[in-house]
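Co-fold these.
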Amino acid sequence: MTTVAQAQVGQLSDEDVAQLDAWWRADNYLTIGQIYLQDNPLLRRPLEPGDIKPRLLGHWGTSPGLSFVYAHVSRLIRMTGQQAIYLAGPGHGGPALVAAGYLEGTYSEVYPAVSQDEAGLLRLFRQFSSPGGIPSHVSVTTPGSIHEGGELGYVLVHAFGSVMDNPDLLTIAVVGDGEAETGPLEGSWKGISFLNPTRDGAVLPILHLNGAKIAGPTVLARKDPAEVRSLLEGHGYEVLEVEGDDLPGMHHRFAATLAEAWGRIRAIQRSAREGTWDGTRPRWPLIVMRTPKGWTGPDEVDGIRVTGTWRSHQVPLSGVKDNPEHLALLERWLRSYRPEELFDESGAPSELVRALNPAGDLRMSANPHANGGLLTKDLDIPDFRGYAVEVATPGVGRAESTRRLGELLRDLYAANPDSFRLFCPDETNSNRLGAVFEVSDRAFAERVLPGDVAISRDGRVMEVLSEHNCHGWLEGYTLTGRHGMFATYEAFAMVSASQTVQHGKWLQEAKRLAWRAKVPSLNVLLTSTAWRNDHNGFSHQGPGLIQVVLTQRGDIARVYLPPDANCLLSVADHCLRSRSYINLIVIDKQPQLQWLTMDEAVEHCARGAGIWDWAGTDDGSADPDIVLACAGDVVTMEAVAAARLLRERLPQLRVRVVNVVDLMTLVRPKDHPHGMSETRFKELFTDTVDVVFAFHGYPGAIHQLVHGRPDADRFRVRGFIEEGTTTTPFDMTVRNRVSRYHLVMDAINNAKRLPRGAADLKVWCEAKLAEHETYVVEHLEDMPDVRDWTLGDWAERG
Amino acid sequence: MTTVAQAQVGQLSDEDVAQLDAWWRADNYLTIGQIYLQDNPLLRRPLEPGDIKPRLLGHWGTSPGLSFVYAHVSRLIRMTGQQAIYLAGPGHGGPALVAAGYLEGTYSEVYPAVSQDEAGLLRLFRQFSSPGGIPSHVSVTTPGSIHEGGELGYVLVHAFGSVMDNPDLLTIAVVGDGEAETGPLEGSWKGISFLNPTRDGAVLPILHLNGAKIAGPTVLARKDPAEVRSLLEGHGYEVLEVEGDDLPGMHHRFAATLAEAWGRIRAIQRSAREGTWDGTRPRWPLIVMRTPKGWTGPDEVDGIRVTGTWRSHQVPLSGVKDNPEHLALLERWLRSYRPEELFDESGAPSELVRALNPAGDLRMSANPHANGGLLTKDLDIPDFRGYAVEVATPGVGRAESTRRLGELLRDLYAANPDSFRLFCPDETNSNRLGAVFEVSDRAFAERVLPGDVAISRDGRVMEVLSEHNCHGWLEGYTLTGRHGMFATYEAFAMVSASQTVQHGKWLQEAKRLAWRAKVPSLNVLLTSTAWRNDHNGFSHQGPGLIQVVLTQRGDIARVYLPPDANCLLSVADHCLRSRSYINLIVIDKQPQLQWLTMDEAVEHCARGAGIWDWAGTDDGSADPDIVLACAGDVVTMEAVAAARLLRERLPQLRVRVVNVVDLMTLVRPKDHPHGMSETRFKELFTDTVDVVFAFHGYPGAIHQLVHGRPDADRFRVRGFIEEGTTTTPFDMTVRNRVSRYHLVMDAINNAKRLPRGAADLKVWCEAKLAEHETYVVEHLEDMPDVRDWTLGDWAERG
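Predicted complex below.
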């Protein structure tokens, strides 16, 4: 079947060419219309200055190449029934893809105002790059897309994520030669080193070398083609090349090349799925397409070459309203596509144009894989209570909290063999999540050697030493309706922070579009934290991602700081069930004190914050003298230790301990749906008593969160103040002034009412800190067991 | 000379081998000592459990490869006098490089306590990965380094930055095969596409394929070597390969390969500098070195293969204190290096070892290029007043502020032809800095075609569509003592935010080391801002980097929001003269209203914040009724417009307008050196009057900055609240509720004293906003000139 089909797909009849060309002309016409026209959309009368938009915005350069490819893939789909989606890497191909959705009818289905007639065309043109309209790049508003054309570099990571566990999907990923210069893009060619042809679908990258970016040539376009081939072959691809601008020659050559690529993909998949594959990494096909930037646009303007240069990047003809020559040139250009053949009387795409469109959901603009919420099924999640740590007394036993989560993830893998994956830069074991390897290997398509452990072509745990790949693959995976988690070092989560920001923007805007179904959340687990990087030191110490997520809108941003294993399990369960959020979970991987029974943890996490009355001396009969609040595991230990010191040494002081798991509960309800009511806020924090707050992240985060709460100035926050080095967690708390001794002194300094003995206790705390200083300075002489020093002292030192 | 030298360098006598091998053994011995020993450093008695550190931390796997290369490069330097520095990409080669500095004597010179004797050795061992000591990776504390081995991916960007305009420098950049999986690293091979052999020095990348990362194999190590070669040749390199673990065979082969690489580099440079180069991009050499991970370590432990696998990544022998077998194995391993030959009686490195060291500053650990402040010369900065915009009346004329800066940069380029560069992802013209092209082209080593504009192999403006490259090159350039600026889109500055964080950490820690001389600041200019991305929309709208820089310590972090051209010039002049800061400057590139004369701007910027009495109605005789504060250009326009509305329509209300240029002035002086005194703060903001603050970034930033100031709760901040789309700046201010009308209503709602007419004015504002809403909704019907709408209305609408 495939061989025949490949030959068929690769051969164009005259009718095929006519259809392809008409569709392509229509797309190009609509692209130019979007950039230039506010009236006379079908050119039924001569073009006049009044037809031209007052401000010309948008990007022509990359568009004709994108629509050319789109047309050919549509034909492939029509002939083969292939499930395919189309990701446009070049930043500003927006109008071409919007036009494609319009020509396929999908655009009018999701935006009825943009109807299939002249009025709809006018709306299509006017909305583009205009206030109240749509952006000039492919965005969340573009049906058929899971990839925003804004920040460059992620088209391949999204593409590879989309096809994992998606055996029938082919994702076309057009890589612009500007984008190809970015680090994340260059680091993402290697997706095929992690792809399994049996279980996964395929990505067909099309490297579109049109020669220029905004203002100059690109590296790949100016390299010897043999070098480009060598580079891509080095990544493991079979490189197919098409070049030119002759017509219909390019149609014939591209059709043949696309058919060849598709045939190879099908052959690889067939061999794998029929059991004749030898297991070596296939040489997946890749197309290098060289066409001039601004292809079919005006060759020269005012005697200067435009097509094929960076000058065609945006608006090749400027000042059209005032320059009659440019106006005439624009009209000639528009008419060169023969709009009268492309649109019928009513203004709808003509039959000739529509003939190319695949049917129904096979249209790339309508494919449900690009609206993944439609395909999302709930995960089968084992009862998280089954992984609980037994806690008889708070703060006595220790456990590696993330190890319990690892066990849950293991069973999640087993129960959901094609809809859950863990993504991690080579740290799954280090993060104590290694139980997953009991049921799945690491994915690896390159050579596996005897002696390798838990790594195979059949593995589904994604380990690649690239936060960009991990994050981007997970985005592609969730946007096509599957579930996952990205686990990484807290400090290095900043490497992919811009991806978190951009994905957040996608989710935020998607919520405003009724036709976009909600997708699984992006779950990020940070578990080698700022406070416990004993030997790594300062470069590994930074709670920056919390700060980033806090800037996102309340409808998507969630930040959890579970203090122990049972809270972590409860939080993780909640996050795995959620949709369309960014869930940030921060917890240490080392053995840590456990505080709450599972029942207590479930209640505590459901409320997001609560009073730990066993830790304080607040009997509830009156306002406490001081509130000791905490969020984050290491600082919670310090806060509880401080409360214990106060209880033992200053028992008359009424101390209330409040732990916060869900950071967003601190915000006013009008700013975040998790924000606790003012009544509840007062129940926890009172409205006049000072609050000493020990925080995992930067102190400023809490100040901004509690702004607008009753007398927010009374919050004294201690947290990470960029004081780090190779040292123990306890010393980290001293350096950042959030140790138990600092907290005790803060409590005394800010308490409403001071019992006798307070001054002595402060002196004692100062002495303890001095002792610690001496200890640090001297310890290189006697080298005590750092671990004992770190962990053993929480109670003993009290 | 070179030819002879190459042959000489490539050939090893027996004595050469003995020296190389002794030095290498000594380095490996010290590496293991750092990981394991707290006593008995020279093994002068049998090893005992008490000699072993209580906690074993550190990384052996990559270390022997790093020290092997180091030894050979040292020999090259000794024979040729080559200026060279050594950047270790693999994250955790710390002990090997620390040992190298120790063997070269530099370590003891900068840290006298780590002396060249047994006591010093003990200190060297004990400090490693220990509280109060040094981290397990190469860090700012390691002499000879400009590259932290923490966050992976930047070794080549740092290397290329270091050799730009540094013709005599050879930077050895060892790339680990784990690091080679990261996006930033993969995107940085193309540095040679921007290198000029006449004017720049050379980078010799050594791709060290030892097979594994933390927990499994790497992609490049498991690819067919032909594919790896193909990949690197595709990037444009001449690939030289060395493989094996046989000795002394590897010494001979590596020496020959290194000599060949060096010979080729010298030949390329000679040809270019003697005028025989044809101008095509040279094929720079690159070495692929394949040696087993943990080379020379224990082959097997407990019957399991260790050397050559990921198991040797960290501590190959565990539980040594309690396991006599492991203890014996460790002792055998340590003695296999024959320490008695390597250290003399006192414990200092023996003559045999020291014989390899280059002299003085040629030692890589002592090379001043790796302590760039020693080489830094002040820039010759033209008088910034010469680029001033004339301002007769505030807020009447418009100018593109960054265009003036571009003119200053042009003259800076001319005056400093080898010590200043601008780095920008393809947006120099777009950012209105294009004047630089009058004196320098863009740098480009690939093919340049007729018709290309301002791009050549001789260019020194660095445009590559990669924030990672731009940021990293600038880091390398400044760390070796030269000056520069990175200009980029505000939203996409988050792409390289982690580099800003890590470089900040470097600068923060460097300030604590007296021996590290201060280097030029990292100047970041964001000039396509959140508020003015008219057609790009939401993905381009994010003031996230301000938030990131605010988390850095006060000794390095600076954030400036100049409201106009003259302020920008004054701020830029200050930043270009500064040392060892992160200077973030945010200003829009579009035509904008100009407020201050140059004299006023200089005074305003020097103070960092001030009252604009011409904008308000506050006559200074009493506290105002309300303070309208602003920071950032677009929101400053709104604040001034709001003040004007209030002046005209509610003249009895005493309104004070405060503009903030230097954000850090808001912080308490104890938290930042720029923080204004409490007196000054009260002079500007009073201590009781409410402050309506219009801010360029996220509102939370101001809340955290003013925390601790008198009654900080009275600050009502409006700013970017993640409401964006394709629209005008004015509509952006409406969506984010910081428009003039919102500010007027805020002022009324919070003023101490309300004149009659206030309620009417609020109603009027509501009506104006409703009118605007209608306008936005309807405008697609009539398409007015968006530009007029955007800018024309600041005064007219008042």
